[in-house]
Write a structure and sequence with these properties.
The complex is a heterodimer of chains A (419) and B (111).
Chain A lengths: L1 H9 L4 H23 L2 H22 L5 H23 L7 H4 L7 H15 L6 H12 L4 H7 L4 H17 L12 H20 L6 H21 L4 H14 L25 H17 L6 H14 L8 H14 L3 H15 L1 H9 L8 H13 L3 H14 L3 H12 L5
Chain B lengths: L1 E9 L10 H13 L4 E6 L7 E6 L2 E6 L8 E10 L2 H8 L4 H4 L1 E6 L4
Antiparallel strand pairs in B: 1-5, 1-6, 2-5, 3-4
Classes of the chains: A mainly alpha (419), B alpha+beta (111).
Chain lengths: 419, 111
């Protein structure tokens, strides 16, 4: 609530700052309202009413002493009004509505728990992944349906239907609004992390559609990861997820050039990385590793690998031995062809292109996967096997669906040996 | 409380035949264990005994065989009354058919 206090003392909160603060507070208020009202739509409409009232009155009256409490009380009143109207339409006893709502609870722990309930319900395994992401953006990030549609490259009508259907499934199938029990928590937290990570990648690799808006998704994902970590600070997955996203996001200013083309890790201007975020993430990695000494959490391990890159002054000065070792650890908890490919590429950096190519070639199941084809092309090129490299680049370019990465491969194809 | 139908999709075999006695016994065990939430249910003879009924322009049109041609068929169901979907899923996971095939959990429209 410090940002609000600052605003109050500053005396004249800018409209944009107020909107941002209301969006942050709004999701907490929504999380509480969903629990007490029990109806997602009524809760959402009521929070929107309350936010609208705050925007209309706060600039005049100043931000109230306890803004969150103000919003909860106001939203609750709006919800009661809405329920009354609905009951009247259904010719039910209107006065009974207020009694249906449990008493207010403004305890900070309860409000945090409500937010966690919202996180876990949005990421419930009974909901399809696309629906989870849409609902998380709508409710946890406070985006409008139109913004969610644009960010996920879906028509607004389709998105509106998807969100409505998802809320309907939650209501009809009685998907619970609760924090999972301790024994279910690790599994359910992995589902939450997968959703947040998917969201991050949608923004991180945004190259089509409304690019600035899609890039915002990465920022929203980091905010969500931070929220999950704030709520569950001792869970390795929550620690690792936040660390991993912070490390990847810290490179945001260096990973595209002035023309919007991707800049590979090796070529990035490391001065443009956000080193304060790297420092925060590295501390998280250490804490995450201490919390799961027996069976390392895959997100913590991936963050450890990212930290090796983030702490290196240059590609050449990277501790590739450590990177390969971390990949060995990762394969013990998450063994897949993509993880094996990344390990093989790191071996190429540590032991030279011949060893790298041998390691890449034994990874099975990626024959049509653009990064595998590109890794082969680059290694062949480094080995001076120009003819084979040219063929490999051709295959990689055909398989690559991202236009900017395709251009990058074309450039590399034209200057063999330099890659 | 919400009422769910747990629809059991398994191989299209005759569950009343003696060679399936073991599975049938497993269902008996599940039924005793989940008696508190079971509100109804039935096991079905194989789809070779099915008749599909449609009414077209007022005429009853019957066909032999099941409605859909798939490997796993609707071979039985339970009605389960549970607090929420997580409880229903936990109960459905104990139905033997979940191991041999799949159990679809669907909320029942209250009438």
């Amino acid at each position: 609530m410090t940002e609000l206090d600052d605003n109050r003392h500053a005396g004249h909160a800018g409209h944009a700052a107020l909107v941002r603060v209301l969006r942050d507070e709004g999701r907490r208020v929504l999380a509480t309202l969903i629990r007490t009202v029990g109806d997602w739509q009524v809760a959402e409409d009521a929070v929107a009413d309350a936010v609208e009232r705050a925007l209309a009155t706060w600039p005049r009256t100043g931000v109230p002493e306890q803004p969150r409490a103000w919003l909860i009380v106001t939203a609750r009143r709006c919800a009661v009004d809405r329920l009354r109207r609905e009951h009247r339409r259904a010719e039910k006893e209107a006065s009974a509505v207020e009694l249906l709502l449990p008493p207010e609870d403004r305890d900070a722990d309860t409000i945090d728990d409500d937010l966690l309930r919202l996180v876990f319900t949005c990421c419930h395994p009974a909901l399809e992944p696309a629906a989870q992401v849409a609902l998380a953006l709508r409710t946890l990030c406070g985006l409008t349906t139109e913004e969610v549609a644009r960010a996920l490259l879906v028509g607004e009508a389709t998105m509106s239907k998807r969100i409505t259907r998802t809320k309907q499934k939650i209501a009809r199938a009685a998907i619970p609004y609760r924090v999972p029990a301790a024994h279910e928590l690790p599994d359910r937290l992995l589902a939450v992390a997968a959703t947040v990570y998917f969201l991050f990648n949608e923004g991180y690799s945004a190259t089509s559609g409304d690019v600035p808006l899609r890039a915002e998704l990465a920022t929203e994902a980091v905010r969500l990861a931070r929220l999950v970590h704030d709520l569950l600070p001792d869970e390795p997955t929550a620690i690792g997820l936040l660390a991993l996203l912070l490390l990847q996001h810290s490179r945001r200013d260096a990973r595209v050039d002035a023309e919007g083309r991707p800049v590979l890790l090796a070529d990035q201007d490391r001065d443009r990385w956000h080193h304060d975020e790297v420092v925060e993430a590295v501390a998280l990695v250490g804490r995450g590793l201490r919390r799961c000494p027996d069976r390392p959490d895959p997100y913590v391990v991936q963050a450890a690998i990212a930290a090796c890159h983030a702490l290196a002054p240059s590609t050449e000065a990277t501790d590739w031995d450590a990177v390969v070792s971390w990949y060995d650890v990762l394969l013990t908890v998450r063994d897949g062809p993509v993880e094996r490919l990344n390990r093989a590429v790191a071996i190429g950096e540590r032991d030279g292109p011949a060893a790298g190519l041998a390691a890449v070639d034994v990874v099975e199941g990626l024959d049509h996967y653009a990064p595998w084809l590109a890794a082969r092309a680059v290694l062949l090129s480094r080995l001076g096997r120009t003819g084979e490299a040219d063929v490999a680049f051709g295959l990689a370019i055909d398989a690559e669906s991202n236009a900017a990465r395709r251009d990058d491969l074309r450039r590399r194809r034209r200057r063999p040996g330099v890659t | 409380m919400t009422m769910y139908a747990a629809l059991i999709y398994t191989d299209d075999v005759d569950w009343s035949a003696p060679e399936h006695a073991e599975e049938t016994a497993e269902y008996g065990e599940f039924g005793r264990g989940a008696a508190a939430i079971i509100r109804g249910g039935a096991a079905l003879y194989p789809t070779s005994t099915a008749t599909t009924v449609r009414v077209k322009d007022g005429d009853v049109v019957t066909g032999d065989g099941p409605y859909a041609e798939t490997k796993e068929m609707l071979m039985g169901f339970y009605l389960l009354e549970c607090g929420d979907l997580d409880e229903a899923v936990a109960a459905a996971a104990r139905i033997p058919g979940a191991r041999h095939g799949a159990v679809e959990v669907r909320p029942v429209i209250p009438m």
